[in-house]
Design brief:
heterodimer, A: 324 residues, alpha/beta, Rossmann fold, B: 249 residues, 13 strands, globular, binds flavin-adenine dinucleotide
Chain lengths: 324, 249
Amino acid sequence: MILAILETTKGALTETSLETVTAARDLAHKSNYSVTALLMGKGVSALAPTLKGIQTVLVAEDSRLEGYLPDALAGIAAHAIRQKSPKIVLAPGTETGNDLMARVAARLNLGLATNCVEFFVEGGSLKRVTRSNWGGSLLEEVEILSSPALLTLAPHALAAQSADGAAPVVESFSVTLSEKDLRVWMKELIPTEKKGISLTDAKVVIGGGRGMGSAEAFKMLEELASLLHNAAVGATRVATNNNWRPHSDQIGQTGVQIAPDLYIACGISGAIQHMVGCKNSKKILAINKDPEAPIFQRADYGVIGDLHQIVPALIAELKKLKGG
Amino acid sequence: MKVLVCIKRVPDTGGGFKLTSDSMRVDTTNVGFAISPHEECAVEEAIRIIEKHGGSSTVLTLGPQAAQEQLREAIAKGINNAILLEAEDYEFWDPAATASAIAETVKSMGFDLLLFGNESADTCNYQVGVRVAYLLDLPCVTGIKALEIQNNKAIAKRETKDGWEVYEVPLPAVFTIREGINTPRHPSLRGIMSAKKVPIEQKKVTRPAPQLVRKALKKPQEGRQLEILGQGVEAVPKIIEKLREMGAI
Ligand SMILES: Cc1cc2nc3c(=O)[nH]c(=O)nc-3n(C[C@H](O)[C@H](O)[C@H](O)COP(=O)(O)OP(=O)(O)OC[C@H]3O[C@@H](n4cnc5c(N)ncnc54)[C@H](O)[C@@H]3O)c2cc1C
Ligand SMILES: Cc1cc2nc3c(=O)[nH]c(=O)nc-3n(C[C@H](O)[C@H](O)[C@H](O)COP(=O)(O)OP(=O)(O)OC[C@H]3O[C@@H](n4cnc5c(N)ncnc54)[C@H](O)[C@@H]3O)c2cc1C
């Protein structure tokens, strides 16, 4: 049996959870295992019948399970694993999913392969997985020696697909939580003020790197963004480390991952740790004075030259177009 | 206040990876090494906490002798003590093994605060800190981007799409840090000089049986075809043409 541990937010299954169900069904198809999903939280039972194409849904409803209670969730999941003896356990490779599965792995003393992108099934059992390393810029093939195999699925490694078929059997699953399971709990949620277009929502992202030279120079990128539809400004780690931009603007392995229609990289060399954050952009346009810069091997359009001349000229031209 | 920071020595690759001929590792013949970014911020956080509340900070790594370079870098910035868990076969340690060696070493050292990176830069397993917390039976919050110590508790915040989640945890506790919590300082020249003289506590550790075994590394496919739009300001009309094609203007 394959156990899929799912996440919900505001009463709905997350996109990455739907991807996890899809991957679990795929794996089941190749291995002849059945699929059981585990839903945990307050008010999650309504979601169980929507999970078509799988056999069983375990529902752990508890009014205390509001917000992120990692030890409690891990306690329930570990209990389900002990009781149902799955061969494979799969969860979304989100921040919370990886955190949860690390706790489950620690409780059961099992290996955990995080952020898997590929599964190799031979003779009906899972032999190996490919997981993402370096934030996605390298892939690692791993054999898992401990059983059951604990895995998380890298977000967007595959597209979620819906399935037909009968609604699954719903089983309620209750677990007595100990005091210790509740010791880490979210006390408060402070909503962040939304200002402008976020990097993850923008259709055009303009990134600035060391070539910008100063915080001041980023003003021209802001101006350029204001002249384009749905555009936002991002930066490299060099720019954030120099305090030219806040860390929340950092694109890359240890920053945000963006997927706009167009990424305009200004004065950015194209280091892998940066590019892994923008590789899902439909098109990449690089402006760099060094024709040998690695970014030109990872871009669709290249402009060779000094950004401090090119960007102002582009702004002037766009203004002319707007005016006329 | 006694603070522990666990760091990892990782290759500082810039423009691209070269793999060794057996595809088992990143070829590090011509690259330098660094502390993983999340851990660099954990080091900075430890230094700030000790500056504010007094006490001592310790940096620990499991790795080869060469990892003294990263330990000394942390000392040069202001960390007080260093521990090297020496394992020349560090490449074959999996996260559970690494966590058990760390937990075994620090369990009777009386740390109030144990800081890790949220995930290491290279192998990104997202679990060493959590596993250490379980082995020591301590509370743990991951992905922290703000940390404040008040008496005997810590207020930790993690940033999500919906806002800042606030956690209040009694000490001792484990936190895994994300880059952005602070801007790490550069070591001073004096710091670098005196770090050379600080003794590093060393202990040889042996590897338990693995749960995960690496079979190979491979590069993902990159499929972009470069079109040069031009040199300097002459390229502006072409850029505008592309912007228009994509509906950006
Ligand atoms: C584990 C790890 C994680 C990391 N995570 C991230 C991350 O999340 N995000 C990130 O960005 N980085 C990250 N980095 C850092 C990354 O490796 C690079 O150091 C960084 O991305 C380089 O930034 P840059 O391109 O701005 O600077 P540089 O590499 O210095 O490149 C500057 C470029 O600007 C060009 N230039 C200079 N002047 C001009 C001009 N006037 N006009 C046009 N072009 C000009 C130069 O030719 C050069 O190509 C990480 C590193 C490590 C080791
Ligand atoms: C074939 C093979 C090759 C390997 N190659 C390498 C390699 O090239 N370089 C390498 O370092 N490891 C290598 N490893 C070892 C292994 O990937 C990790 O060191 C170990 O499993 C921890 O995983 P992680 O760092 O991804 O953990 P994560 O859970 O992602 O790390 C979280 C945090 O734990 C702490 N941490 C992690 N590792 C250490 C450590 N060693 N000492 C102190 N604190 C630590 C850090 O604070 C880190 O931010 C290899 C393993 C195999 C099987």
